[in-house]
C-alpha cells in the first residue's frame, strides 16, 4: 500500500539493493512538499531494500546546477535518478545518463527540448497558464484590465505560464486588456511596488496575475491600497503566505501542482522500472493542477 | 553673478550629473504620463526607494572608508527572520524588533572584526557573511516565510498624513547621516581613513575602531532595512533582500561616491536610490515593453555617470 | 654632509656660448586657476652642461620642467629644440625626442621587478615576442652599475626596496634611455652619502657624453658642487643666472628668498630636571636592539644614522605604530603603553612622518582638513566638530608657518611639496603635543622654508616642547640639535652633546657597526 | 635546505592559503566519500570549474589593471544567444561561433570605451552593460531558449580520451594567459598600470590602450565561456550566466588578486575557481542540505582568505 498522498504501489524487489538519487532544489516553501515526498518514498521503499537519497542542488536554480548534480549522481553510481530539471539545458546530460544505463525520471518542470528521460510527471506550464487564464476570464466576466507580473524575463517556465494565459485570453477574450508584463525577479517586495504603480497608472485594473515567486506581495499591496474585493490576485502554489491572502480575499485563485504526489509517485515508478522493468503509464504524466479558490481556504 | 556661480559649483559636484539625469527622467515622465505628478505616485516612488536608500546610507560610509559590504542583502533577510521568529516565539514585539536590529548590528560587527582583526579583504569577508547569513536565515525558518506584523508593518506599509512612514524614516536618517558625515569628528575621520589610511592613522585616527564602526553601522541599517521590508510585506522571507547588494552599491556609486574611498556625499546616495526607483516607476507608468525595460535601465545608468565623466574631460582618474 | 662627498672639481670647461642650445624656451607662462605659477620664463639648456634649477617651494621649478618635457602645456611662450619649434603634447612625445624626467614623487612600480621597472615602456623582446628576461636583467645590472647602485638585485620586486633605492632605480630608468635632456627633480632627497657619490659620478658621465642636464634640489651644497650654471627661480620668474663658480650659498639664498636667511644655532640652557622621554632597553625584535635613551623636556634631540639604521623604527616604536618586543618606554615618568598611534596622539605624542605622499597628506582633503585632523577631538568636547576653531587655528598656523596657499579650502595636493610639509607640521603642532617626533622633516623643503621650520622647531622647544628629530642631513642636526643619538644597524652607537658634535664624529659613529 | 626554502617561499604567496584550503577540502572528501577520488569525479570537478575559470582569466587581468567587469554574466548569455540564433538562421556553424565570440569581444570593447573615452567608472559602466546585454539577449530570443549544438556541444560536453574538452580548453588558456601575463610586454604593462597608473603612464605605457585591451579580452573570454556553457547544455538560454559575475570575481580574489590592482597570479585564479567547484561537488557527494551548503560556502571562503590574513599578521595595509 503506498503511503497517504501516493497513488502508485511498489512491486516486489527481486533485484537486490536499489539506490535512487532524488535531485531537487531548496530555496522557498514550494520545495518543502517535494522534500517530504522524497522522504516518504524513502520510507516506503526501504521496506523493499531500496533507498531514495535526497540530494540538495542548493538555493540557486540553474541548468548548471542540475548538470553538476546528475554528474555527481552518476559518479556515485546510483541506479536511477529523479530530478527537477526545469531548464532546456538539462536535456543533454539526461540523455547521457540514460545512455549510461541510469534511467532518469523528470518531475515538476522540464525544458522544451526533448530528452530521453524515462518519463515526465508534472504540470505543463503552458496548459497551466491556460487553466489560470480560463479562471481569470471567468472572474473578470470577460472584460476589464489584467496586470501581469512575471518572475524572470526569459525563464522558460515563467514565460510559458505567462503566455499560456495571455495567448488564451487574447484569442478568446479580446476585451480583456493586458497591462505589462513586468519583472519581479521572484521577489514579493517587487510585486508589491509593481502592483502599487500599476494601480496608479491603471486604476481600473481588476485582476493581477503573478506567474512565479512572490504573489503575496501583490496581494499585500491590494490590501494596503484598500482594494480588497475590487482587485484580485491569481498565482501559483499552495504556500502558507499565499494561503493567508486566499483567506482574507486579496488572493482569488492559486494553482497547485501537487508536488508531494509528484515526488512520491515518480520515485516509486522509477523503482518499479528498475526492479521489474515496469514502464510508467506514459512518457508524459500530466498533473492537472488543483485550482484553489477562497472557498478552499475556509 | 551669485546664481551662476552657484550653478557652476553644483556642476562640479560629482552627484550633479545624476541629479540632471533624475530631473530629465522626471520631466519627461511628467509630460508622458498623466499620473506621474500625482502626489500619491511621487510618494510611492519615495517609498519604493526608501529601503535601498536606507541601506545605501550605511554602505556609503563603508565605501567612503575604502571598504565594501556585500553582505547587506543577506543581513536584510537574517534580521527580518530573527525578528519574526522571536516575535512569534516570545509573543513580544519589542523583543523581536530589538533582536532584529541587534542581528544587523552583530553581522556588521562580524564583518568589521573579520576585516580589522583577521585582516580579511572586505570584499571576501562580506562575501562570506553574505553566504553564512543567508544560510542561517534559511536554517532558522526551514525556508518558510514567517508572518510579521504590528509596528514593523506600520513602519513598512503605514502612512502618516498620507506620507509613507518608511519614506519619513529614510528622510530622517538621511539628514542624520548627512550631518554625521559632514559635521562630526567621527564622520570626518571616516573620510580621512578612506583618503589615506596610513596618514590618517599616523595623525591619530583610530583605524580599527573607525572601520569597525562603519561596518557595524552598515549592518545595523541593513537590519533596519530588513525590518521595514518585511514589515511592508507582513512576512519575513529568508530569501528577503537577495541581490540587494548590487542595487545598494549602484545607488552609492551613482551618487558620486568613489569606490576607491575618501570621497562621496550622502545627498548623492539618496539621489542615486531615487533614480533607480524612478526608473522602475517609469516602466510601469509608460508601459514599456518587457525586454526594453532591461535595456533602458542599463542605458540610463551609463548615461547618468557618463555625463559626469565627459564633463570632467581629460582631468584625471 | 654632501659638501665633502661632491668635490667641486670637473666643471665643464666648454663655454656655453660656443654651442647651440639643445632646447630653448621663450616667454613660458603658466597658471593654475588664478595662480600664476610661471610668468614669462626664458631658459636655454646646452648639451654637456649641468644646470642647477633652484628656488623656494612653489617657485615653479617642477612646473617649468613638466612643460619642457610634455607633461604640461604652457599657456604662453614657445619652445625650440635644435632651433626648431616644438610642442610636445604628451610625455611620450617628450620621451621620443630624448627627454627623460626623474620625477619629484617616487614613481617606481612596486609590483614589477627592478629590471622591469628600468625597461618599462620599452622592454626588449625575443624573436617570439616574449619579454627577453635575460637581456633585461643584464642591461639592468649594467645601468644600475652606471648610477652606482650595483648592489640592487635586478630581480627584486621594486616595492620591497627602500625609498633611496627606489630613487636610484628611477634615476637608472632615466639613464637607460641615454637622454639628450635629463631632468632630475630632487633626485637625491632620500639618498645616502654613499649613494649620492654614485649618482654624482653618473651625472658627470652623462654630461661628458653631451647630455643637457637640469638638476633641481634644495641642498644648495650639492648644487654648487655639481652644477655648471645656477638658475634661480622666484615666484615664477628667473631672478638670477650665472656660473656656479661665481656664486655662493649666501647669494643663492638671497636670490631665492629675497632676503638673506641663515639659521644660527643659539645655545640654550636646558634644565636637567625633567626627563620627558626615557627608553630602557628597547627592542622591537627585528630592527632595533637594546636602545637606552633619555630626552629632557624642551630639548631638541637628534637621531642620526645611515639608511636602515633604525631611526624610523625607533620613532614608530615611540609613536605606537610598531610593537615593543621588550624594554620600556616612559613618558614624563609614566609608563607609556603604546597600542596604537591614536592613543599616542591623544597623550600628546605626535609625528611628522617620513614620506609626505604615502604617510603624510590626505590628498583628497583640503589644507584645513589636513591640518586639523589630529586635533578634531581636542577642539570639540561634543561629537560635533568645531569648525570655527579649526578655521581660526588654521589661520594662525598659516601665518606662523608661512604656508603659501590661495585658500584653506584648496586641496592639499595642489600645494608645492614644501608647503605640504608645512601643513603636516601645522597638523602636528595644532594637536598641542608634549613630544614632537620628526622623521626627515625637511625632505624636499626649500632653504627658506627650512629656516622657517628650524625657527619653528626652536621656538616650540623654547616653549617647552620636547622634540626628537631623525635626519640624514648632518648640517641640519648641527644647526638645530642640543644632543644627537647616533644609531648604527639598530644599535645605539652613542649620544653626543652639543660640544662633541662634529660632522666627522657623527659619521664615524654611524659607521661603527658596518 | 632548498625544499624548506621553497615551501616558505610558497607560503608567502598570496594564493598559498587558498591552495591549503583546496588541499584540506580534497583530503577531507577523499575520506568522507568513496567516490571523490574516482577519476571520473575529479574530471567532473575540473569541467564544472572550467567556465568560471576561463571567464575568471579575463576578469583577473581586468582586476590586476585596477578595473572590474560586472558584465561577464550577461555577456555569457548574449554571446551564446547570438551564436545560437545566427547558427539557426544562417545554418552555418562557423558563422554562429565566430559571431558569438565577436559579440563577447564587442561587449568588452564597449566596456573599455565607456571607461577610457567616456571616463565612466568601470563598476558603473559594466553594471550598465550587464543590464543592456541581458536585455538584448531577451529581445533577440523573445525570452525563449534556442537549441545549440554541433562543435560547441563537443567543446562544452565532449571528451577526448575521457578528459572533458572544456577542461582542456581551460588548461590551454590558463597556460597561455599565465605566459602572457608574466612574459610579454603587454602583460607586464597591465601589472604596471594597476599598481600605479600615473607612474606607468609617465614611463610611456599607453594607459588607454592597455585598459581597452583588458576589457576587450575579458569580454572575449566571457563570450567563449558563453559558447562552452551553452554547448554543454545544448541550449542557449537568454538568462544563461546570470549571477556569474560574483562567482568569477570571487574566484579571482580567492586566488590572491588584490581588488586594488597591481597584484595577482593566474595560477591563483585557477585554484580559486577549482575551490568553488570542489565545494559544489562536495555538497552533492556528501548530500549536504541546501541551507548548510550556503553556510559552509561562506565559511570556507572566509577561512581560505583568513588564513592568509592571519599569517601576514600586523604587517600592513
Ligand atoms: N595641478 C596643479 N593645480 C593647481 N596648482 C598647481 C598644480 N601644480 C602645481 N601647482 C602650483 O604651482 C606652484 C608651483 O608648483 P611647482 O610644483 O612647480 O613648485 P616647485 O618649485 O617644484 O616646488 P617644490 O620645490 O616644493 O617642488 C605651486 O604653488 C603649486 O601649488
Ligand atoms: N636589512 C634590511 N633589509 C630590508 N629592509 C630593511 C633593512 N633594514 C631596514 N630596512 C627597511 O628599510 C626602511 C628604512 O630603514 P630604517 O627606517 O630602519 O632606516 P632609517 O634609519 O629610518 O633611515 P631612513 O629613514 O633614512 O631610511 C625601513 O622600512 C626598514 O624596514
Ligand atoms: Mg617641485
Ligand atoms: Mg627613516
TrEMBL record, chains B, D:
InterPro entries: ABC_transp_permease. Pfam families: BPD_transp_2. Its main location: membrane. One of its GO terms (cellular component) is plasma membrane. It is a multi-pass membrane protein. GO terms for molecular function: transmembrane transporter activity. It is found in: Cell membrane. It comes from the Bacteria. The chain crosses the membrane at residues 18-37, 49-65, 94-116, 123-148, 160-181, 212-234, 290-310. The keyword RNA-binding does not apply. Keywords: Cell membrane, Membrane, Transmembrane, Transmembrane helix. This is ATPase. It comes from Paramesorhizobium deserti.
